[in-house]
Amino acid sequence: MKNKLRILAVLLIAGLPLLFPASISANFSLFMESIIEYNHKIYQKSLEDGSYLGEEGILRIRPEVGRSLGLKVYIDQDYLDASKLIEEAKDHLDKVLELMDGKGNSKKDPSRQIAELSLKHNKKIAQARKSLLSYRSGISMETDNRLDKLRSMTLMEQLLEESLKKTFNLRDALADFYNRCHAIESESLDPINIDNVHFVNYVFREFIEKASPEVRQQFDLDRIVLKDHANSDRRWKRIAIKDGFLYTDLLEEILKESRDDCFQFDPLIFLALMKQESRFKANAVSYVGAVGLTQIMPQTGTALGLKQIFFPDYFKKAGLFLVKGRRMREKAENLLSEITKENMYQVAYKAWTLSQESIVSREKGLKLFASYKKEVLAKGIDDRLDPLKAIKSGLTYFTEMMKRQKGDISLALASYNAGPHRVKQYHGIPPFPETISFRNHVLKYYKGYLQEKRALPNI
């Protein structure tokens, strides 16, 4: 009987073809179909790569989350033992990473400590995985509501509806839904984060491809259309001046010049972008060499036609040092999972050595970029330091990204920050903390501007 239930559970999580209850709206069924497909793929992957943590059902939620949502869930000693082992393993790994970063009160080679802690971590993770698979074999529809497809679908619709009530923006609503299913606390008003961005990209893209134009119009898709956004509306100027932007007249002139051939959008979007990029400081220089109000990198500035760009030979070298440092660090951390009783000291020493080399490489890159910042400000002849040229080139580039992303503001912002090739690579917002934060903050500023705008008379 238990085997039959297990087969049924697998069919339920696969959910194809989907048979939705009549009470579920057609709009929600599109979301739910994509959510179930995504969760099934990740569920299967977790079983294959050992990342399974007890998530079950079409919602792919852990037992604790299921209970918090009012479901009856199955928890046995195997699951409790696994949870304890995972927490202990995490503590070991945190200590290992501190040692690899050179933290602590000892200047001696810590590779022996790294080896012993990593071995403990790996053993406990292996034990936890065995316990979780044993736990999984005991789950049935009689003992766990997560395997009850109809009940889970009703709960899924409820959670989606509540998330959409929180925020009209579809991407943020999907992110909020994911956070609630995985007990992720969102620290900001914009809940997209590194944990849920793949989910948001997948479900959002599936909805755009499958939904009819009429259905898509019912949601805020971060999208604008090719049209003039009320050029006669001057409220944005009052908002810009109030927020401390000193170059309002320059921006207005640039907008007038580009009116005929520009992808027309609310100037407040671009104002929000500049606020996040430079805090409206014309002499802002980032730690990786982006300069000016719109934080243009040297390569981008050259491509945009700026003539005077401070672009010394060491600039590319600085970037390569950071990339090399990041890759060595990743390689060092990957080595930790390969540590066994037989090889522990050799592999740990190699991992520690790589981590130290990565720190040196990163420090070299940051030192060169610090020199670049001093030089570009001291010389003062870079076109990106000129407010007029910075605004004009930044607006040109953002407009190009808006066109390329067909008016999708989130993807245009992601393209501006990480490059359009990254948006294409990840089929949506790239899973980079800096890019996600950039998108979230710009849209937060923009929403705040819109609230101010609605409170002002259009005169």
Describe the structure in your own words:
Among the domains are: 2-74 and 138-214; 235-308 and 383-455, Lysozyme, CATH 1.10.530.10. 64% of the residues lie in helices and 0% in strands. The chain has 19 helices and no strands. The protein has helices at 2-14, 26-49, 63-68, 77-100, 111-137, 149-166, 170-181, 197-210, 213-216, 235-242, 248-257, 267-278, 298-303, 313-336, 344-379, 387-404, 409-418, 420-426, 433-455. α6 (149-166) packs across α7 (170-181). The longest helix is centred in the last third of the chain and has 36 residues, at 344-379. Mean pLDDT is 90; it is low at 1-20.
By helix and strand content, what is the structural category?
mainly alpha
Name the beta content range: under 5%
By DSSP (H or I, 4+ residues per run), the number of helices equals 19
Give the mean pLDDT: 90
Total E-strand runs = 0
Give a brief outline of the structure:
With 459 residues, the chain is an all-alpha fold. It has 19 helices and no strands.
Topology:
Elements: H1 2-14, H2 26-49, H3 63-68, H4 77-100, H5 111-137, H6 149-166, H7 170-181, H8 197-210, H9 213-216, H10 235-242, H11 248-257, H12 267-278, H13 298-303, H14 313-336, H15 344-379, H16 387-404, H17 409-418, H18 420-426, H19 433-455
Which keywords apply here?
459 residues; mainly alpha; Lysozyme; 19 helices; flat; disordered N terminus
